[in-house]
Amino acid sequence: MEKVSAMDALKPRIKEFKYSLYLLNRNLLTRVAFITVIALFLIALLAPIISPYPEHIKDEANVTQKLLPPSSKHFFGTDELGRDIFSRVLYGTRVSLTSAVLSVGLALLVGVPLGAIAGTAGGVVDEVIMRITDIFLSFPPLLLSIAMVALLEPSLGNAMIAIALSWWPWYTRLVRGQAVSVKERKFVQAAETIGTSKWKIVFKHILPNTISPVIVQASMDMGGVILTIASLSFLGLGAQAPTPEWGLLISTSRNYFPDAWWYSIFPGLAIFITVLVFNLLGDGFREILDPKTRKN
Amino acid sequence: MKKGFAGILALALAIMMLLSACGQGGQQDSSTGKQNGAKRIAYYAYGSEPYIDLDPSVEYSNGLIVLHNVYETLTRYDNKTEEVKPLLAESWEVDPEGKVWLFKIKENVKFHDGTDLNAEAVQKSIQRTIDMKMGAAFVWDSVEEINVKDDYTVEFKLSYPAPLDLIASGSYAAFIMSPNAVEQNSDWFNAGNAAGTGPYKIQKITKGEEVIFTKFDEYWGGWKDNQYTDIIIKKVAEGSARRQLLEKGDAQVATSFSVTDLKALRDNKSVVVSDHETWRNVIGFFNSEKAPLDNKDFRIALAYAFPYDETINEIKEGLAVQSYGLIPKGLIGYDESLFRYSLDMDKAQEHLDKSGVDTNGLKLEMTFTSGNEVYRNFAQLYKINLQKLGIELDIREMNWDNVWEKSKNPKPEDRQDMLVMNWWPDYASPLSWLQSLVLSEEEILFNLSYVNDPALDAKVAEIEQFIAVDKEKTHDLIVEVQKKIIEDAYFLHIYDDMSSWVTDVHFKGFEPNPAYEGVVFFYDTYFE
User: Fold this and answer.
1) Quick one: CA torsion of B70, B71, B72, B78, rounded to 10 degrees?
2) Do the domain assignments include residue A19?
3) Is the confidence at residue A4, as pLDDT, over 80?
């Protein structure tokens, strides 16, 4: 019998990856979305360097320069305390992306293993986990988040926890469905036959084979989570002043809207663009990773 | 999944609610102010809930704006003459010691339920409020007994001299109600029932949202053709929505606007903007029971770090004056010789060093009612200043119930470090500040700096003895108390507020009275 080297074993996967990149590049909207998302993460990373007034985030204010319209000095104008809105919107990218990544990450951390366990174990374990997810899913996610933050105390950290707690059941349900089908496949049965432990089967064999739809879902959820964080902050339940969170900026700007349109418009545009590109990217990932559309 | 959609929906709903608020209220004939040819409606767009409890013995919040149009008090404070004027009492007299008061009650006055006002109704009303011990009932603490001397004379016997004519003019707890209503419990009142002698009867209530009145035809003062027959007091939380209601002519009166809204409204010919001094002051309360705020020098350092001038000149755009202690202008005890802290970071650092407090990793929590743009703005400036001292300020906006609940936590260390709120008097007296904010409390109510100083308690007790009989002595005592609380920096005396009222150009006769915060006495207003 001929031995297969590790490199040879990886070859089909490398080929698949290259094909995925090709598909990503082929779709214009997905390509634009992908590049924009990368740009957003770069902005988030480099915010302290590229902001013209990084001191306007929390160290300084200049009330005498309040509510100035957009100009070459302040691209997006100034707010009610004379702070540069452009700098605050750039920093807001960091706040929104970090909190969205952490919220989705936490939801994945809870939801994915629970789904894999439910799908693999079946029986009572499956019943208990799925009924708990049903309870969570019976509340609209935003309403559940609002209720949780109201219980915990308004803050960005608590908003992230609340979002993760109202989001995890979606991942549990998704992974559980995948696990139920994967566990019937021969490689899982073979592992069971040779006496591999149940935990090892769940985490080494079942989870890696259910991950594609989770990636698609997570990338699509990023937009929704950013919007929910902004909504919670808008309602006073998320980030607190002076954090430059987009929803909070819009909420604060409401009182000035008739006379300072720029204050609402630019954070609003930032939310719009970010949510849009994450949704487009999610759609693109679905097309790339879905076996049906992939073949087409 | 529908989560993104839910977020969009929530934002859209918020915008729709804002827009819908803009479209409310009825259009009136601009020449007569009448709607449907018969009713003349005045719409007061109010920034918060119009009331919490409609029981006149219980309410101790916004509800004064409703109750003072439905019920009346024995006397009313006139801020122009700085004197108490008769209302349901025709006249009154007091013995030289200030401990026995006789009130002569007005005759031919009817309650909304048709019964007549008499001495017994007055006695029962005040006794009900005292017995219920709710809201501002404590203002009657000096009263030992209330006696009906004849049909229209009531006698109050006091345990110590007190300014009963002022107390009887109070913004809370001094309402006279029909003997039938006295027998009822709070549920009856909160179901929308009322039986006062006031010019308006309650027609409809929506808890937390609005109150609609209609005129009481048999009101003892009589009616003129150009007075308003129907009144709507409705919660319109957004300043921009209140502004639009006024600009469209849907609302006749509103207040609590941002300085940017006021700027725009001042240029609008269809409305009138007027600025008035108030007895409402904005105060920061330091938690003097919790380390490191139990350290006097640390509190002084914090007092020197506050941006007083920026707050008053930039954030409030001059519509406020820095406070001289607790007592605002127009009341006994107001004194411009009192020391005022000003922003001085060197002195702040000096007192911080003197306090010996280690600021490494020090985080202080400031709480206030959410949605107050002025508080949010000065809190952010304060945060920047404190950062320079190495102190991190955590700004916490919460609804009032949570702010208050936290402030009353049995463990001082679990309470906030600083709380900001405004205060206005229960009646036209400095005692409203001293008794509520300075006098030590076993069970915390409003002494939110948790001042617990027997010497100050003794001084306040002395003031209570003299306030009805010796104004000069009272003034000196109040100044002494204020000197001590300023020296110990229990409070941030931020500013005495001014109120800017915006009224429709046809809405006449309205004069805000600082003794009745936020109240529009609609009977005095008329269409022109």
Assistant:
1) -50
2) no
3) no
